[in-house]
Structures are given as structure tokens and as C-alpha cells.
Batch of 4 targets.
Target 1
Amino acid sequence: MKFYKAFLCGVTLFAATACTVRNAGQTELKEGISGQVTYAEGNMMPGPGQKAAPKGIQRTVFIYETATGADAEGTAPLFTAVRTRLVAKVTSDTAGNYSVKLKPGRYSVLTGEEEGKLFSSVSNDKGELSPAEVLPNEVLKYNILVNYKAVY
């Protein structure tokens, strides 16, 4: 009977391990930001026969120290430069998914667009562009909707 219990435990442990799917070299993000970049263009108004929905898109995501409109050159939502320190940049995959390891702190998260411009359509009551706060030992889910060519 002990043999069967040991055998059953071994098979169960093997099955649980074998069913875990991970990419080679992939490590789980424990602190930072992850999300999806989606793109909307054209008529996004709901209506009969309309099936407009944002789609995941590959973009470079730029993470700056917190920036306000006064720290940026250009006109919202497309800026030509941000004058705070660039902390990190990452390219989303073709479905728009991205993740980046960051220390706890406050950041501005923008995407790279045509002609080298930076996109941010969100700000808070302090005027911070695309604000994001990473807390200790947490991953902030931060989705970005690039919609400067959309009509609502």
C-alpha cells in the first residue's frame, strides 16, 4: 500500500511540474509596470454595424521621472520632448503587451509615435503626464490607449 501512495504522489508531482508552461529564461516580474498598448483610429462611435475596437500594437514605451506639461515640449497629446530623466524604455510585443522592472516611485509613461513624438493623453490634478506609481513589491497594471487619430 505504501508503494502505491508513493507512486501516486510521484505521478501527481510530475504532472503538476510538467504542466507548468514557461518560456526559457523568463522570470516573473515582482516590481514594476506591465500592461497592454492598444491603438484606436477613425470613427470609434458606437452604432449599428460599428465594430470598432482598439487593437494591440507594438510601440516603444518610455518611462520618465514624473513629468508635468511644463516639463514637456509640444502640444498635448503629442509632445516632441520631455525634460525629466528617462528611467527606462521597453518595446511592447505585436499584441501590445509590455512589462518593465522599476523601483518603487512615481513615473510618467508615454509611447513613441510617428516623427519621434511622444504620446500622453492622460494627466492628473497636478498636471502630471500619464502618471503611474509603483509600490514596493507590486506590479502596476498600466494599459495605454493610443487614440490621437480616433474620433469619438
Target 2
Amino acid sequence: MLVQKLETQGVHLETDGTNITVNTSAPLTDEQRKFLKLHKPELITELKGYAANVIDLIPFLKNCCVGYNTNPEEVKKRLLSSVDIEDIISGEYNARLVKSHIEVWVIEGKQDYLK
């Protein structure tokens, strides 16, 4: 998946359905900029697919956050990559696994893993 390729390089993407917002801790390389321009329509389609599944994701994460000092939106924004979200939605990551990741993340100070 195209979004996954960028996520592994530390580039987090969001879309409003027309434009792409890029979040990264380092400046984009020329190669990444070219990739974004070349694949913009496909990236938007992928990102919209993730957004369509957020309705199912948030209740799942809400259950996983019980007992921890966090909330589903914070977990989605700061802990989970698009690949993680895809794995949760597909059922590859179960609640027990996600809860353990949230627990460790909270204990370690809720670092922003997506920046």
C-alpha cells in the first residue's frame, strides 16, 4: 500500500478528501515529494478508506483505553500508524494486543510515535 510506504519513512498523511496533509518530523525528501505528487489520487483513495472505517475503530479503541489515562482519538493520532489501524480493522490485531500497546505507551509517557 502506498500510505504504508510513506508511514515506514516517518511520513504521516491525512486527507480532507481533496488535499493531503503531511506530518513529519523531518523535511520531505525530493523523492518523497515526487512520490506524493505522482500518487496523490491513489493516496487520497487509500486515506479515505481508512477514514470510512474510523467509525468502527473508535468504539474498539474506547474499549481498549478503559483503565488508562488516554482516549481513542489520542491513541489514533499519536500511537497508531495507518498500518496498525488497517490491522485492527482487519482483525489481525485483537483488543488484548492493542491494550498491551496502550499500556506500555502510557507508562512510557505517551510519546508521539507518528512524528
Target 3
Amino acid sequence: MIYYIRNKIVKCSVSNATSVPSSAEEIADSFRKVSADTIDALKQQWTDASLSEMKNVFGMDMPGGIMLLMLNKHIIHHRGQISVLFRQAGLRVPGIYGPTRQDWSQMGMDAPTI
């Protein structure tokens, strides 16, 4: 997998990049690898000053920091999609932001109400 961060090519080696994953574990491992590679690239290539440099993203000029915020929100969006797919498949949803309703029940406690 190759992608661009700050106009530099960043290579991430993901095993079986051209095949369909056979398990949730394989998907999670790939995500962890790509996330770690991205963090390393950001640490090496970005500075506080580059967060204010204007970037052209999808035809719009915006500061680099806003582009990173958009990337983070995009990842959060996909995390939400995965949670919905887990529920639809009858699978246990992992506690992403703390215990799930099922986790509270398993601990013998009522889930907090909002």
C-alpha cells in the first residue's frame, strides 16, 4: 500500500493486500500495522509549523492540521460502521470508548444512562 503524507510517499507493507481477509483478527492486525506506519511517518515528516501550512485536499485549500483532523474523523466514522456491522452480524461489539452495554451486563451492573 502506498499513500501520500505531506507530498512524500509512505509505503506500508500489508500482508495479503490483494486478497480478502479471512478473519477479523487479520483486519485488526492490518489496521494496527498501517496505523503504526502512519504515526511513524507523521513523527518523521511533520512539525508544529507544517500543521499550519496550507494543503490542497480534495480540491480545497486547508491547513495541514485540519487535514489530519479530517483523517482522524474519517477513521472514527469507519469505526462506527464496523460497530454497526458487528451488531448486524450478531457479534459482540468491542468496548471502543469504554464498556459496551453487554460489558456492563457481564459485570453485573446496569449501564450508565445519558
Target 4
Amino acid sequence: MLGSEAVPKALARDYRSAELSAADRTMLAYAVKLTAAPHSVTQQDVEALKREGFDDAGVLDICQVVSYYNYVNRLADGLGVEMEAVWSEEDLTLTRSDFDVRVDAKRAASEVK
């Protein structure tokens, strides 16, 4: 997985399309669920992580990292922080236009509610 340019791009678009181990896939499913619908995370989700070999400390690490990134992103979004213009297309996993499309779609979805 390391050193592959295809994996980060697949992860950025949809982790389910990336070549991953079962443990990584389970971890990312948990991360997505914790991000998108934190109220729906259950003990079964934690048990799925443990079945893939994560111990209590590993589950806690995953939860803390996901929660921290969610916090930082919500803080940046809440303050209207925009992506810095100094980043070149080569530096990005998603192109700037892909990123903007995703942001616009999320904004439109939140306006509908």
C-alpha cells in the first residue's frame, strides 16, 4: 500500500474502491460511520474492529484520530477557512476542482434540510 499513488486517490474518492486489507476496510467503515452518523455507532461496530485484530487501545486510537479530524474540519468550516491557494495540483490527492465540487455538493445538501 505504501508508495502507491493509486491508493491515496482511491481513498480520497471512496475507500471501498481501494485495495485494502479487511482490517483497514473495517477501520475506514467505522471512521465513515463515526463521521457521518456518530449517533449510530454501536457496540457491534467496536466488536467488528476487535474481530479484525484491534485491541481496546487500537479502537480508542482510531476513535480519537477520527474525532480529532472531525473537530478540526468542523472548526475550519465553522470559521469559513478556505484551502490555501499555495497548494499545487500535484500536492493534492483530489484536484482543486474535485474538492470544490464536493464542497459545493455538501453545501447544497445542507441547504435542502
